[in-house]
Design goal:
- InterPro entries: AB_hydrolase_fold, Esterase-like, Mycobacterial_A85_antigen.
- This is Alpha-dextrin endo-1, 6-alpha-glucosidase.
- Pfam families: Esterase.
- With 274 residues, the chain is of the alpha/beta class.
- The chain has a single domain, classed as Rossmann fold.
- It has seven helices and nine strands; from the N terminus they run ββββαβααβαβαβαβα.
- Helix 1 packs parallel to helix 7.
Length: 274
C-alpha cells in the first residue's frame, strides 16, 4: 500500500493535491482511509520539507462530498491561501471511527455508560494509533518535518478535547493543539484536573468557542461557553501567556461552517515559529 491520488467524486470540492491511503487500522481501530493534502510548492521544490497538521474527523476536512455533516472545514482552500502568505504545511486527515467516535476521542469513560459499552476511554489508544501507525505513513513517505516542533493537531468538539489531551500527554510528539469548540462537559470536566495537575505546559494552544454551540440544549450551550472561558483562565494560570490564543464568537455555532471561518487564524498561530 502507499499514498495514491484521491478518488474524487463527481461533486467533490477538493482544491490542490489530495492523496489517500486505504485500509489503515490496528488491533483497536477499524481500517479507514487516511487523507494527505500537499502544499502548492511540494512538486516544484523537491528538497523542501514541511510541518504537518493532523486533523481529526478527517472525512469532514477537505471534501464536502464525503463529509457526514454535508459541509467541510475547507482546510485545502485555507492552506492554499496561507501558502500565498508564505506559510505552507502538509495536512493529514484522520477519519473518525463513526459510532466509535466518542470512544476514540474521549480520554476517560463516561460515567453514564454501562461497563459492557465502549463509552469513552479510548483516547490514549487513539493517540497511539495516530503516533505509531498514521504518523509513520506521513513521515516515511512524504517530505515532512517530523519533530515535535513542526507537528500539530487540530479538531473540534471531542476532537478539540483529544488535541489538548495529546499536547498534555505526548509533548515529545506534538507542539501545537487546535482546540475548537471543545466539549469539556462531555468528559465530566476531566481536562480541568489534568491541566491543573500537569507540569509546565510546552507548545502552543489555539482555543475557540461559539455562543450558540448546542442551540437545542440551553444548559449545554452555556456549558460550552463557560467551560471554554474557564479553561482559558486555567491555561493562563499555568503560564501559557502568548502561547495561548483564545477566540470567542457569540454568534458561533457547532458546525464546520463556523470552524472554517476560524481556521485561517488558528493555522497561522499554530504554524508560526515565533
Amino acid at each position: 500500500m502507499s499514498w495514491q491520488p484521491y478518488a474524487a467524486k463527481p461533486d467533490s470540492t477538493v482544491t490542490g493535491t489530495l492523496l489517500q491511503w486505504e485500509g489503515v487500522g490496528d488491533d483497536k481501530h477499524a481500517a479507514r482511509t487516511m487523507l494527505a493534502w500537499l502544499p502548492p510548492s511540494y512538486e516544484s521544490q523537491p528538497d523542501k520539507r514541511y510541518p504537518v497538521v493532523y486533523f481529526h474527523d478527517g472525512q469532514n476536512v477537505f471534501d464536502a462530498a464525503i463529509s457526514y455533516n454535508i459541509s467541510e472545514w475547507e482546510a485545502d482552500e485555507t492552506l492554499t491561501a496561507l501558502a500565498a502568505e508564505g506559510l505552507e504545511a502538509i495536512a493529514i486527515g484522520i477519519p473518525n471511527g463513526d459510532e466509535r467516535r466518542y470512544h476514540e476521542y474521549s480520554p476517560v469513560r463516561h460515567p453514564g455508560f454501562p461497563p459492557e459499552v465502549e463509552g469513552g476511554g479510548g483516547g490514549d489508544d487513539y493517540l497511539s494509533f495516530l503516533i505509531d501507525t498514521v504518523k509513520p505513513l506521513a513521515d516515511d513517505n512524504l517530505r515532512t518535518l517530523p519533530d515535535a516542533a513542526h507537528t500539530s493537531l487540530i479538531g473540534s468538539s471531542m476532537g478539540g478535547l483529544i488535541s489538548l489531551h495529546a499536547l498534555l500527554t505526548r509533548p515529545e510528539v506534538f507542539s501545537g493543539a487546535g482546540v475548537m469548540s471543545p466539549a469539556f462537559w462531555a468528559c465530566a470536566g476531566e481536562a480541568f484536573g489534568r491541566v491543573r495537575n500537569s507540569p509546565p505546559i510546552a507548545g502552543r494552544i489555539w482555543m475557540d468557542i461559539g455562543g450558540k454551540e448546542g442551540t437545542d440544549h440551553p444548559e449545554q450551550q452555556q456549558a460550552y461557553w463557560d467551560d471554554a472561558h474557564a479553561m482559558r483562565d486555567l491555561l493562563l494560570e499555568k503560564g501559557l501567556g502568548e502561547r495561548l490564543r483564545f477566540q470567542a464568537d457569540p454568534e458561533g455555532i457547532h458546525r464546520e461552517t463556523a470552524w472554517k471561518v476560524r481556521l485561517p487564524d488558528a493555522l497561522r498561530f499554530l504554524l508560526s515559529e515565533n
